[in-house]
UniProtKB/TrEMBL annotation:
Annotated organism of origin: Phasianus colchicus
Domain Ig-like: 185-305, 324-428
Pfam families (alphabetical): C1-set
Region ranges (Disordered): 150-172
Keywords attached to this entry: Immunoglobulin domain
Protein name: Ig-like domain-containing protein
Family matches, as InterPro entries: Ig-like_dom, Ig-like_dom_sf, Ig-like_fold, Ig/MHC_CS, Ig_C1-set, Ig_sub, Immune_Resp_Modulators
Length: 476
């Protein structure tokens, strides 16, 4: 079949039809043959693609509207111990007789609490900043919770100017006040609650100020920069921040900040304040950064926030660690028959203090490791030595009995156990008896390789030396 007018044939292919064996040549028509038809086809494809995008956009917008309209599930209620003793001015809870209580959030009255005693008092808590609600969102461990009645006062840090009371002070707002300390291993918060009206056995309360942390317990390596997270939720107001460090019965102010002057009256080298807010939701981050934590930085950290209407604080625990470095001397234990040797295991640069060093012996280098009672005459361990960076070192030694032929090949190991190690660290050495050790397979292999390389080098430097032998063989 001939190509029609206006067609461009770029090749033909054969098609067999029926039993008569007719062959029809099919012309492959390119888009250049119908430029107008090709243009219309492209326009239709573009319109279809645009329509698909429009429909997808409408579907996604409808999904987002429906998703935003559906309220998130209410957090589960939290069981608390309501203490009758008065708290310490809006800070941490005090002591006293405990009564079972329950915190419910967001007006939820149906979600069952964790199994426990029947609450005598239920607090319906309004938490506009979501400071306490993460404790009730599964999956979670049952949080600890203490409630204490308190009488917040207009207070200030001793090193700053007084914060004057305003319309949000307790004297103007009235009502009952409680301080709630709640937390899990991953999250903790201390909140100042202002009580309102309520029915018998139920009290409505609102979070007036909450100080929270995502890092209530931290474990960091010596010299590794770390962030001690702290944030507070409150209405807009001037505030004063204080970071305090307590260790071994002594305390000191590491850093202090006054928002009204944007200045830090107290600072400490190596401690930095990371100040920030989250998109206008009323939560202000006041995280402390330790540039190079050392063993001396271990201990309890208190993040305190002072406002005109009261103050509260949260507590963080920082543990510092450093795994030990272990070396065994001598590295090569070659002993003359009839003489004794001394092994020294040096354990250095570790923290905390507690470390265990033991000796193990494996006869002939095979079999299980055992305590070397029969091959050690005496052993001793030095006291702890503290380095300038706060880490510790100590040395353990073992004096072996005089060497005998049967001791050849014995393996002695120094085994170190420390809290910073996932498993005990072992360093070993093999005892070799002088005069009884033959060549090793490694030595023989090395000598063979050296001889092979020298032979090849000679043949490359003096190629004519091998030719007379080759010519003699050819003539024969």
């Amino acid at each position: 079949m001939q190509a029609q007018k206006g067609q461009i044939c770029t090749g033909t292919s054969s098609l067999h039809l029926g039993s008569g064996g007719f062959i029809i040549n099919i012309c492959e028509v390119t888009e250049e043959a119908w430029p107008q038809r090709s243009r219309k086809r492209k326009q239709r494809r573009a319109m279809a693609a645009g329509l698909r995008l429009l429909l997808a956009g409408l579907f996604w917008s409808q999904f987002r509207v429906e998703f935003a309209a559906s309220p998130p599930p209410s957090p589960a209620p939290v069981r608390c111990a309501l203490l009758e003793g008065e708290g310490r001015g809006g800070g941490l809870p005090g002591g006293g007789k405990a009564r079972p209580a329950l915190l419910r959030f967001g007006g939820d009255a149906e979600t069952p609490p964790e199994p426990g005693p029947e609450p005598e008092v239920t607090f319906s808590v309004s938490d506009p900043w979501g400071a306490l609600t993460p404790l009730g969102v599964p999956p979670r461990a049952p949080p600890s919770c203490e409630l204490n009645p308190t009488n917040p006062q207009t207070v200030s840090a001793p090193w700053s100017r007084p914060l004057h009371p305003d319309a949000r002070s307790p004297q103007a707002a009235g009502g009952q006040w409680w301080v709630a300390a709640v937390g899990t291993p991953q999250y903790s918060a201390t909140a100042l609650l202002q009580g309102g009206t309520g029915t018998e056995g139920t009290i409505t309360a609102a979070v007036s100020l909450a100080v929270l942390t995502n890092t209530p317990t931290l474990r960091v390596r010596v010299g590794s920069p770390t962030h001690l997270h702290c944030a507070f939720a409150a209405p807009p107001s001037p505030f004063i921040l204080e970071w305090r460090h307590q260790s071994r019965g002594a305390g000191r102010v590491l850093l202090a900040y006054d928002s009204s002057t944007a200045r830090a009256p107290r600072t400490t080298p190596g401690a930095e304040l990371l100040l920030g807010t989250r998109d206008g939701d009323g939560v202000t981050a006041v995280t402390l950064r330790l540039v190079r934590p050392s063993p001396g930085d271990e201990g309890t950290y208190i993040c305190s926030v002072f406002l005109p209407h009261g103050h509260t604080q949260t507590v963080l625990q920082l543990d510092v660690f450093e795994p030990p470095k272990v070396t065994l001397s001598p590295k090569n234990l070659v002993v003359t028959p009839g003489t004794s040797a001394e092994l020294q295991c040096h354990v250095s640069g570790f923290y905390p203090l507690d470390v265990t060093v033991t000796w193990q012996h494996r006869a002939g280098g095979s079999g299980p490791s055992r305590s070397p009672r029969d091959t050690v005459m005496d052993s001793w361990t030095s006291g702890h030595r503290q380095a300038a960076d706060g880490t510790y070192s100590r040395t353990a030694a073992a004096r072996l009995i005089p060497a005998r032929p049967q001791h050849h090949g014995d393996v002695y190991s120094c085994v170190v156990t420390h809290t910073a190690l996932a498993k005990p660290m072992r360093v070993s050495v093999r005892l070799l008896l002088a005069g009884t050790e033959g060549p090793h397979l490694e030595d023989i292999t090395g000598l063979f390789l050296v001889a092979f390389i020298l032979c090849g080098l000679i043949r490359w430097l003096y190629p004519t030396a091998a030719r007379p032998e080759e010519e003699t063989k050819k003539s024969q």
